[in-house]
Each structure stands twice: as C-alpha cells, then as structure tokens.
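Continuing the series of single-chain predictions for the mutant panel. This is the parent chain; the variants come on the following pages.
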Amino acid sequence: MTLLKGAISAVITPMKSDGSVDYDTYAHQVDFLAAQGVNGYFINGTTAEGAYLSTEERARCLELAQEHKKPEQFICLACLAASTSEAVEQVKFFEKFHPDYFVIVPPYYFAADGKMIQKHYLTVANATDIPLIIYNIPQRTANDAFGADVATLISTGRFAGMKDSSGDFIRFSRWVLEADRQFSWIQGEDLLDAASLFVGASGVVSGLSNIFPRPFVKMYEASQTGDYRSMVECQRIINKLGTIIDVCDGKGIAAIKAAVSILGRCEMWTRLEAEPLPESSISKIKKIIDSVAMVL
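Parent structure:
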C-alpha cells in the first residue's frame, strides 16, 4: 500500500463554456501540480465538482491524472455516492483503473445513524481490495462519518485514513494524538493545515493548492524536519490565499477556478454556475493572488 501522507491536491475539473470537461486543460493542470512537487492527487472530489460528473467523465479524469502524474505520486479517487449500493457499484467499476485509494463519503441526502454509517463503510470495504479513505464532510453529506465506530473501522485494516473536512479541530486533534499510527489522519480544511501537522497529522488535502501548490508542499516538508517557523509562515500565506473565497461570498470552487484562470491555466466556468463571477470579484481575487505571488 502506498503510504497516505503529504501535500495532496484536490484537483479542479476545468470546464468549457458549454459545461463540458476541458480534458486538455485538466492534463496541463496535473502536469503543473506534478512539477510543483505535490505528493498526491484527490480526484473527482468536492473541488472537482465530482458529484456532477458522469461516470465517463470521472473515468477520463482519472486516466489523465494517472498518465500525467509522477511515478512516486499517488491518486485518491473519490466516489461521491449517496447510497451504499451506488458506492459499491462505483468501486467495482473503477477497480480496473487501479487507483491507489478509493475515497468514500457517508451515505447522504437522507439522515443516517451511526449503525447505518458503520454498515455503509464495512460493506464498501468488503467489495474491493483497494484501501479506502473515509471522507468526512458533514456540511455536504448531512451525515457525520464520526457517527460510526471509527476505532472499529480502523481495526479492520481496510481503511488507510480519514480526510476530515468538518473543521472540528478539537475532535480531529484528539484522534491524531491517540489513534493507531498505521492510520493516516488528513486535514481537509486549509485554515487548519499547520495546526494539524503540528499535532502529527499525516498530511493535508487542499483545493487552494490548485492555485499555488508550493506553500502546501513547503509546509509539509517543514513539518517533517520540525521547522515550525516555516510552517507558520506557510499557513499565513495560505490564509491570505483563502480570502479569495471570502470575496466571492463563499463560492469556493468558482473562486479557485477564477484564480487559476487569472494565472492562465484554465477558464472560469463551473458546471452549475450559469455565469462567471462578476468583474468586481475577479478584480479582488487578482489583487489577492498578486500579493501572495510576491511572497512566494
């Protein structure tokens, strides 16, 4: 099993004005991230608008990521399925592509109690030999993965780690400090990256890294040598970069794509937005990325 750790980029899915995936630009974005030294890729997840991609689109994005990554970089393939049966169907379909990990959210749309979430994860784990990553993002799924008996899931040896995007740092840090070292705890909230690495998290998954990956790579590298001053400096840069979302009224994917577009690497289109961001927001994003670029 490839060790789940490091600076992991949640890759955007570039779109054309008609809403179709721009595969050439996708490949160029993976090339860029590979050259910048990210450790791995989070494919078809939230930042990728994965819930709105067809099976064929997800498959092609995965193939391109595999073709353009470096040999030492790994791929975490998100299967954002609302039900257990759909999650099993997805992992069965994507097994032939041999991703390093499958990323599985709790069942969503309908409320699920702890027993249901537990059964969901165990059923998906029993359907594939590829290790799973638990993806906790209750603000999207309405169900918290911690409702399951996480310790029992870890003890099966079928789960490589958890990406926690809940923002609950108290809970996250307690698990990092107390849990099995063979299980990777990955932070999914950019504002908590340095703090998470301070307490021993295995890595971070970031959508903002599509814009400037180096602060995330440098922060992780600094955490491995105990260079806490550099980690803090990187977090300050990341915090500044994250304000692009604030000036877009919380539209994180649109803001990230706008920033990458300003840097000349994709168009601003998202699948759900009928129009790009207003010029006033784009102007503010440009000022932010210009100020961040000056200190990189």
